[in-house]
Amino acid sequence: MNDDAPERPAAWHVVCLCAAWCGVCRDWLPVLRQAAAAHPQWQVAWIDVEDHDEAMGDVDVETFPTMLVARGDEPLFLGPIPPSAVQLERLVERLQASGGAVPGEARDLLQRLKPVLDAGRV
Fold first, then answer.
1. Which residues pair with 17 in a beta bridge?
2. Is 119 or 43 the better-scoring residue by pLDDT?
3. How far, rounded to the nearest angstrom, does the alpha carbon of residue 16 sit from its chain's CA centroid?
4. From CA 61, how far away is CA 65, in angstroms rounded?
5. At 1, is the pLDDT very low, low, confident or very high (cuts 50, 70, 90)?
6. With helix as H, strand as E and coil as C, how does 24-68 read?
7. DSSP-derived 3-state class of residue 80
8. pLDDT tens string 29-40
9. Distances from the Cα of 104 to the Cαs of 31, 35, 71, in angstroms?
10. Domain annotation for the chain: domains and CATH numbers
11. Cβ-count burial of 34 within 10 angstroms (0-12 exposed, 13-18 middle, 19+ buried)?
């Protein structure tokens, strides 16, 4: 390992917590795919909360879509947003510029979702 090599920036995870039965979520999926194509530096994932109920732990998603945004292993946002590409881009840009603060449950959720996130993207 070369100690002089520049450190790679942490990956940005943009995770949509949704449900397949939800019409808003189904409509949101193509928007996420477009965001992933427009921002290849983001690791974008659409997680069905019912398919991954064990990973969700005690996190209860009450409003769809709910987004989890993290820089590497550091969650910066966990909450609902309007299903809008513009709103998503603004959110991530704001977090990239200034960071964020999330409840402690977000860090645990991110760690439980890591195997799913590592397996694929939108």
1. 47, 66
2. 43
3. 5
4. 9
5. very low
6. HHHHHHHHHHHHHHHCCCEEEEEEECCCCHHHHCCCCCCCCCEEE
7. strand
8. 999 999 999 999
9. 28, 27, 15
10. 12-119 (3.40.30.10)
11. middle
Neighbouring CB atoms inside 10 A of 5's CB total 7
Q: How many CB atoms lie within 10 A of CB 6?
A: 6
Q: Residue 67's closest CA among 86, 51, 91, 90?
A: 91
pLDDT tens-digit map of 73-94: 899 999 999 989 999 999 999 9
CB atoms within 10 A of CB 73: 12
Is it true that the peptide bond before 65 is cis, omega within 30 degrees of 0?
Answer: yes
pLDDT per residue as tens digits for the range 40-67: 999 999 999 999 989 999 898 999 999 9
Tokens of residue 80, six digits: 């609902």
Q: Provide the 3-class DSSP secondary structure of residue 78.
A: strand
